[in-house]
Predict the 3D structure of the following.
Amino acid sequence: MKYDIIGDIHGCCDELMELLEKLGYQYKNGVHIHPEGRQPAFVGDAMDRGPDSLAVLQLLFTRQDQGILFYSPGNHCNKLYRFMKGNSVQLAHGLEVTIAQWRALPKKEQQKFRQRYIRFYEELPQYLVLRDDLIVAHAGLKEHMIDMPITRKIEVFTLYGDVTGKFHADGRPVRRDWAKSYGGEPWIVYGHTPTEKPYFVNRTVNVDTGCVFGGSLTAFRFPEQELVSVDSNQPYQPDRFHRFT
């Protein structure tokens, strides 16, 4: 199987539609189908911050209903899940935008969406093993974690990355660049940390190119190892992009 792995969408539905079209997908019966049998896969964080998280999620729900969803959940997915389950979470870092969009629905639609999202999240794997040589994990995965039983430590790593417990002055967590020491054979495709351009090191690539911050929405085509992207329609926020050193 050939895949097009798409970076963090964060509610940028128009850019997603444009990218899928650019990749050669055709929209039929509520889903995007590729004439050559390729499949889109997603590194997670489809929602929050952007203009139309609910529309993006509805597209993903439809793919899941048809058994063709390849999606690795991210930290924003997890936080929305905890909110929908009734847990106390802080409405910040873009979640408040998604919740405002959800609360604008009629009450019956709100409840229907809540239940559908809970089921959506609970059916997702923690990370995707798409092929022997291709793994998708939202914030990354170290080689010794591959094929291990999912522990809390692995769950946290796939959602948040290699966090140190410290924070930058702007509140962002300090994360180690785990990919620099990755020595595994499978490619790890991930997102989570927005960069101006896809970040390649060893057999890993970060494809979160900050669409919601005015960058671009990027897909990594595999096994071709080609990049395809579309420009963002959102305002450019240069301070939101990470510079790996």
Q: What stands out?
A: Residues 107-122 form the longest helix (16 residues).
